[in-house]
Amino acid sequence: MSRRALLLLVLLVLVAEPARLAAQASFDSTAYLRSRVAQLDSLLGHTSASPTTRSRVLAEQAHDHPLRVQVEGRLTLAVPLDVPAQWVSTMAHAADSTLGEFGGIPDETIRRLVLLEVTLTPENAMLAQFKGRPFASLSPVRASDSAEANGSKALEAMAHYFTGTLDSTWQKWLEGQLVLAWNSNLDGERALDDLASVGGYVSGKECLAGMLASCRQWLGLDDSPQPYSVRYRPQELVSALRNSDGSHGNPTEDRCRGGDAQACAEFFTLMSWHPLPSIPASGEMRMSLLRELRERHGKEALRRVLADSAGSVGDRLSHAAGISEDSLVSEWRLWVLGRGRIERVTAGPGDLVSALLFSAILVGMAIRSGRWR
Amino acid sequence: MSYAIETHNLSYRAGKNFELREVNLRVKEGAIYGFLGPNGAGKSTTVRLLMGMLPAASGTIKVLGHDVPRAMPLALADTGYVPERPHLYPPMLVKQAMDYHAAFFKDFDDGYADELLQTFNLVADARLSSLSKGEMGKLHMLLVLAQRPRLLILDEPTDGLDPVARRDVLTALLDFCSQGSTTVFISSHLVHELERICDWVGVLDHGRLIVELPMHGFKQGIKRLRVARPPSLIGDTPFVLLLREQTPYDEIWVVRGWQAPMTQWFDGAGAELKEVVDLDLEEGFVELLRASRTPF
Amino acid sequence: MLGNILKAQWTSARAIVIVFGILAFTIPLASVFYGGDLTISNVFQVSTWLATSRLVGQAIPITALALGVLLGMSAWSADHSGRHVYALSLPVPRWKFVLLRFEAGAILMAGPVAALGVGALLASAVVKLPTGIHAYPLQLTLRFAMAAMVMYAIFFAISIGTKRVVVGTLSAIGALILGDIALGAIGSSPALVEGAYRLLTHWPGPLAILMGRWALFDV
């Protein structure tokens, strides 16, 4: 009997599933047709099919270098004319929303920048109206990518441009790229992993143990001209080089291999190649520090710190937050320890109580079962 | 009078096609009660109701003086039950099944169990999954007899067994009954089998208890009569007229509660009693069923 | 009485207990050996090693789930073929008999749970952990026991049920799937199955204990 019921269920699923797929297919084809109509509308010179009032097409040109300039929210985008206006609108709104959540880039900067699709050039006559405004290169917008994926391209272009406007201290600390989309849970988990595992660096271990000075070293918040000697312990520098392959025949390198840690620090600072990163903490860890600043002290604090160009990164963070560097680092450390344990390996009292309670309920149901009543 | 089993207006319904209607069973203590009925009459359903395995729609059940199903564990403590299809746990060995069963019955007689093991030719180390149907039936009988119950409820205990196994089981049962005053309630459609061992009989058909009487009354009281010139209107009779069939020359009557002096009634009624035929249990059973299905 | 029920249960479930006992003992050790470097002397390997521990750890809830399901189903499988008639003819209050059967199954489950505990303690003892990384042998064992217990209780309750219960459970699941498909086909997105899944797998749902990260070693 139960086998028959199961068979019936499978049959129903087999019948219903193609219907659902067919419905989905018809939906997709409708969307495709809509996009084609929007594309044709654009070619005929109609206004954009964008659903929002903040969206508008500034100019279009259907010959020579066919392109369309579209303003979506705070973003201005120039794309080839064969990219449907609807796609641009969707991706731009996704990107603008993330920028709003990030909150560290001034509104003026976002509004002034023109995101120019990589196949187009600023010399295009259609773009003359943007003379004097900065351009950033936008990767090609594709139909095969989701709105979020295309939106990420806009964010990357924005982040690349904005990082370029920051001073060298920021650029070194950010290693050339600011990440604008933050996943707090993932960041927290990775941060704890980094701290505990990649944090095998002594500064990381000490940071995990609660030594805030080591956290500062680990995060590279100082502005030392010889960062390696501050952020790593002598033995770490020597063993890192000894464990690496190849030699450059450099006398400083030879001294380092001989056990001179100061030589190692000098060698790593001067050379472009080195077996240790200049900052022990990963890029994600540093981003999580900025995230903590924004969460605790607001978007304004994030905007202020990125606009600051005086002192070390630590000093800037401290000024922006209005608290000491150690207090900020301590807040961040507690956040890492807390958020990193979202998925605990241990069962909490709630889990145990729930498991026992449900077991008891199920046994009760078993006792009440028809033939056992 | 105390009864080992007593039901009052017991009713049960299963689907649209089957109904047990107001069954009033009375099984005296110490009796060997044959519960007869054709296949599908409701015998196993009645047994399952007595064992508390089915909920009655209405009516009451008392087993060994205990209300069923409310005080079922008390009733079961003194009841040995062999179901229609004996089934124990297949991965067990015979001796493990005996230990397992013994754990639930405080009066379980290990010595008697071993004795029955020999009698039934069962191997203690055999796995139950390897036993034949006959061996499984014998094992189940062994278990319930060794628990030395006050009441044995046997549902078609010999059904499907080969003649040898059937003889072994019935012999063991009779032997056990001769040792004490155990009440036996044995359901079967094999009438001749019950004829040998039962002292009471109840007949169930289509969910109704047609008759319940001592075996001697059943065997001797049901007769087939050949009656010439029968009266068109039959008033009070000293016997129970169960069935009346016309033939070209006379009528065949099936009656219950017949005694020899009753021949005089025919003289008074202007009829002629030409022949009185004795029926054995099986013939009586068949006539009883025919009568219950074709009321005149 | 419990002893006899336990023996009976053991005869029908010993293969499950033995196989899962071996599995449960092996998995924590695999977290160590599969990860490579036993002493973790190389700090660069720690991250990979942790990831391996978590990967191997995924086998633990699956083992708990399978153990619970199989023990739950085996608890009444012998009775099913005889339509529970023998069990129902025994002179024990029925609630007590069900509890005894549950208890016997839970005791059998203690074998694989203990095996996991021993394996986890052994694995924790043979590895020298770097700062910041901890071993959770006892917590993991407790969680494994609870997860297996919940799954055992679920399938114990289902397998004791009548045909009507089984058909009802299957129908409810089928109705959810069909409802989802039907509503999806008309353009709505009700996510009934997803909703039910969330309800079951998020605290205080019964399956929440199975979810999340399972690893012998973690930060």
| SS elements, strand count of chain B | 15
Mean pLDDT of chain A: 79
Strand segment tally of chain A: 5
* Main sheet specs of chain B: 6 strands, mixed
Structural class of chain A: alpha/beta
Percent of residues in helices of chain B: 25-40%
Oligomer: heterotrimer
Fraction in helix of chain A: 55-70%
The coarse silhouette of chain A is globular
- Portion of residues in beta strands of chain A equals 5-15%
Account of the 3D structure:
- The complex is a heterotrimer of chains A (373), B (296) and C (219).
- Chain A has 373 residues and is an alpha/beta fold.
- Helices cover 60% and strands 7% of the residues of chain A.
- The relative contact order of chain A is 0.08.
- Residues 1-53 of chain A have low confidence and may be disordered.
- Chain B has 296 residues and is of the alpha/beta class.
- Chain B is elongated and about 70 Å long.
- Chain C has 219 residues and is mostly helical.
- Chain C has a two-stranded antiparallel sheet.
- The radius of gyration of chain C is 21 Å and the shape is flat.
- The interface between A and C is large, with 54 and 66 residues.
Key attributes of the depicted protein:
heterotrimer, A: 373 residues, alpha/beta, five-stranded mixed sheet, 16 helices, 60% helix, C: 219 residues, mainly alpha, two-stranded antiparallel ribbon, 8 helices, flat
Task: Please provide a brief summary of the model.
The complex is a heterotrimer of chains A (373), B (296) and C (219). By secondary structure, chain A is of the alpha/beta class.
SSE topology sketch:
The complex is a heterotrimer of chains A (373), B (296) and C (219).
Chain A: H1 2-43, E1 55-61, E2 67-72, E3 75-80, H2 85-102, H3 107-112, E4 114-117, E5 135-138, H4 147-165, H5 168-174, H6 184-196, H7 202-209, H8 212-219, H9 227-231, H10 234-243, H11 251-257, H12 261-270, H13 283-307, H14 313-321, H15 325-339, H16 349-368
Parallel strand pairs in A: 3-4, 4-5
Antiparallel strand pairs in A: 1-2, 2-3
Helix pairs in contact in A: 2-4, 6-13, 6-15, 7-8, 8-15, 10-12, 11-12, 13-14, 13-15
Chain B: E1 3-14, E2 18-23, E3 26-28, E4 32-36, H1 43-50, E5 58-63, E6 66-68, H2 72-77, E7 79-82, H3 94-102, H4 110-119, H5 133-146, E8 151-155, H6 163-179, E9 183-188, H7 191-197, E10 200-205, E11 208-214, H8 215-221, E12 223-228, E13 240-246, E14 251-256, H9 263-269, E15 272-278, H10 281-293
Parallel strand pairs in B: 4-9, 4-10, 7-8, 8-9
Antiparallel strand pairs in B: 1-2, 1-3, 1-5, 5-6, 10-11, 12-14, 12-15, 13-14
Helix pairs in contact in B: 4-5, 5-6
Chain C: H1 2-33, H2 46-57, H3 59-81, H4 85-88, H5 94-126, E1 134-135, H6 137-160, H7 163-185, H8 192-201, E2 217-218
Antiparallel strand pairs in C: 1-2
